[in-house]
Specification:
heterodimer, A: mainly alpha, disordered N terminus, B: 286 residues, five-stranded mixed barrel, rod-shaped
Chain lengths: 218, 286
């Protein structure tokens, strides 16, 4: 059922993720020899930690960026997520759940803390917006689309936001989303319809779509 | 994204989400985060809870929820106490009154006025033995000795006490100086002039005594109760109304019945010898 063709961001194809979005979601698959990497990272191996970071940084950042108000905040929170990862790795216990799921939970907790106002005001880690001046019109359109989706997602419940981002933007399968949200697979399959309906209402596309399907001129 | 479970509208939204702009960390931020992360590895690691633990819907950890619950519960208790104190100033007294309220039952028990009161009542009321068995059990030894001596002198007239026998009733039989009243033979003084007057059926008041060494009852005083017989207390002379007016009573005899019947109104003194033939006059003794 999952017809995703993910492009995993790892140390080898990191530059791909920096390129223009290809229209496919990035699926977070376990890194090669991930268990060994985690074990080494837990023992303080900086190379292993760096490899884990390279493998998951972009996915975590993208997830966060649609849950917060700006990329700047998303960068800040992403840094916090991996800082917590480093601090907690020595105590990390492999329960069989994907390592990425653990990172997403750290990110979700950081986002929740952020929305509760516990976190400090984000400081820009870099001049992110000033680097790419090619295709300014396309960039503006993407920024508008991103802002619209952010606004619509922000109006939904936390569960619906996580489900839509992880399932349809990050391309995670039902099982992983279910594990992340602490729900059953069946519950996720039911909930995704409700989440999509809520998103359509938030975007105002439900009436437009009905009119389009009926052949009405919009 | 192809998923047959989705309708066209949902599929459109899914495609929109899948093709949504994917922001990415720029290289500078990417490297800065990595540097911070690797630097943190050289510093002592704080002993913090698992940052990836599942939090409840509100984003709180389980421990935070537990602590929050305790705080809320404590706050509710404090608020309730304050509300109780403010809304009712007397509740301050109610705890004070509740303490005596616990002693009130104990007073009711320890004072034990009821058993004692009942006990005094039981002195005269024997049936309380069945109603209140507990107090009577302890009190019966005190009650019975008192009641028995009071009852025995009236019921059993033992000769040792030499009581006076009082018999008052109609004469059933007269044999010589022995008069029978209620089946009791009473010996009168043979010289008692009353013996010449009394007849069977007369009512006598006899105070008697047992004769020494015998069971015979000896009359001490004999007085006629019936108005039909009068006795002079000074001389012992008796007069009997025989029902006719031809036997006038002596002056000392009241003989009210004879005087009323035979036309002498009132007065204890008769009208002697008026000779009107109405039967009034001094009677002879016998």
């Amino acid at each position: 059922m999952d017809d995703f063709h993910p492009i995993r961001a790892n140390s080898n194809n990191l530059e791909i993720s920096f390129q223009e979005h290809s229209g496919h979601n990035e699926r977070m698959e376990p890194l090669p020899d991930e268990r060994s990497l985690i074990a080494r990272a837990g023992r303080g191996d900086k190379d292993a930690v760096s490899t884990l970071y390279e493998g998951y940084a972009q996915s975590i950042f993208r997830y966060i960026s649609y849950r917060v108000e700006s990329d700047m905040v998303a960068e800040d929170l992403t840094g916090e997520v991996f800082l917590r990862m480093v601090q907690a790795l020595p105590r990390y216990q492999d329960t069989g759940a994907p390592f990425g799921a653990w990172l997403y939970r750290i990110a979700a907790n950081q986002i929740a803390d952020h929305h509760r106002g516990k976190r400090r005001v984000a400081e820009p880690l870099s001049d992110n917006q000033a680097s790419d001046d090619t295709d300014p019109l396309g960039k503006t359109a993407k920024a508008q689309e991103q802002a619209q989706l952010r606004q619509a997602l922000a109006s939904l419940s936390e569960e619906y936001q996580n489900l839509l981002i992880l399932r349809f933007m990050q391309g995670l399968p039902h099982t992983e989303v279910a594990a992340l949200l602490n729900k059953s697979d069946a519950a996720i399959r039911v909930m995704q319809h409700r989440a999509l309906k809520a998103l359509a209402k938030a975007l105002g596309t439900d009436t437009k779509a009905r009119s389009y399907l009926r052949g009405d001129e919009s | 994204v192809n998923d047959s479970d989705f309708n066209p509208q949902e599929q459109g939204l899914i495609n929109r989400l899948a093709n949504a702009p994917q922001p990415s960390l720029n290289p500078a931020a990417f490297e800065l985060i990595r540097a911070r992360m690797l630097d943190a590895m050289d510093q002592p690691i704080p002993d913090a809870p698992d940052p990836g633990q599942i939090r409840p819907q509100g984003g709180l950890t389980i421990t935070q929820v537990a602590i929050l619950g305790l705080v809320i519960a404590a706050a509710i208790v404090v608020i309730l106490v304050i509300v109780v104190i403010i809304s009712a100033p007397k509740p301050i007294q109610t705890p004070v009154s509740t303490v005596p309220s616990t002693t009130i039952p104990t007073l009711a028990v320890t004072v034990t006025p009821l058993p004692q009161v009942i006990a005094t009542l039981a002195d005269t009321a024997m049936p309380t033995q069945t109603a209140l068995p507990e107090p009577t059990q302890t009190l019966t030894p005190e009650v019975t000795p008192d009641s028995i001596p009071e009852a025995t002198p009236e019921i059993t007239s033992t000769p040792t006490l030499e009581p006076v026998i009082v018999v008052e009733g109609p004469v059933q039989n007269i044999e010589g100086n022995v008069v029978t009243i209620f089946g009791i033979e009473i010996i009168l003084n043979p010289d008692d002039p009353l013996l010449n007057v009394i007849e069977v059926g007369d009512v006598l008041h006899v105070e008697a005594d047992y004769a020494t060494d015998t069971t015979l009852i000896i009359a001490v005083t004999v007085e006629p109760v019936s108005n039909e017989v009068n006795t002079n207390p000074d001389t012992g002379e008796s007069w009997r109304d025989n029902g006719n007016c031809d036997n006038p009573p002596p002056p000392w005899a009241p003989a009210n019945g004879w005087r009323r019947r035979c036309g002498v109104p009132g007065g204890s003194a008769p009208n002697p010898g008026n000779g009107n033939g109405n039967g009034m006059g001094m009677g002879n003794d016998g």
